[in-house]
Amino acid sequence: MKTLTGIGKIDRERIAAIIRGTKGTISVDEAAGILNIASTDTAKMLSRWAKKGWMSRVRRGLYVSVPLESRTADVPLEDPWLIAERLFAPCYIGGWSAAEYLDLTEQIFSTVVVMTVQKPRDRSPKIKGTGFMLRTVAEKAMFGLKPVWRGQVKIPVSDPTRTILDMLSNPVFGGGIRSVKDMFINYLRSENKNLEQLIEYAQRLGNGAVFKRLGFLLKMIAPDETETIDKCRLRLTAGNTKLDPTLSNNKLITRWRLWVPENWGNIRDVH
After folding, report:
1. Are 157 and 186 contained in the same domain?
2. Which end of the chain lies in a sparser environment, N or C, as judged by fewer CB atoms within 10 Å?
3. For residue 210, what pLDDT is reported?
């Protein structure tokens, strides 16, 4: 545990100025500009403050301030979304992280799902005790987003329909297809339900597996949505897809070109 040590008046004033002039995270260049000090000197200063426990280093050249009430510098990230936006932009918060924010699930997930245009080597980084799940998306796939204010920073988050779309595209983003099904049920019961928009988004994304999973789930949990179910059938692509690639999918539902687990739901009703 890194304990805080004493700090002089000048350093305290400089830290206060930096905190006032930044938005949750602090880079060397930002701090240098605020203090009107050379970047090399600023980098050494930030490093010294981090060693004393008054700053916490997130990545090389990037810091966050330590809350004044803290007795140690070993503190978790106050807002992981700010770190995600700073490190992985252009990006958006999606999957189960967006679902939590949108009240589509009561589950608590400790890892933050981030869809990014970047191509990071480490797709499961852990930063100051917080795990991130990174997935690369094309720039043209950056749609269906809404800005959410976190302090002074606007962070893109997938809207309810895009959140469901991403989880249907790859159930891992929702913690598996069983969890995705529950979130989809909550979506269908919410004021945000918009199946016409979901079909439009799916076409725009261009992932054929979405229509197979979407049609199958609707037939199972909302069979009265015949118009959307028919639209899914008309858009089925060739080849067979697994309902959830992480499960043992040993039964083929030929109508939906979908491999599903033998004991998953009442599959007799979805043919």
Report:
1. yes
2. N
3. 97
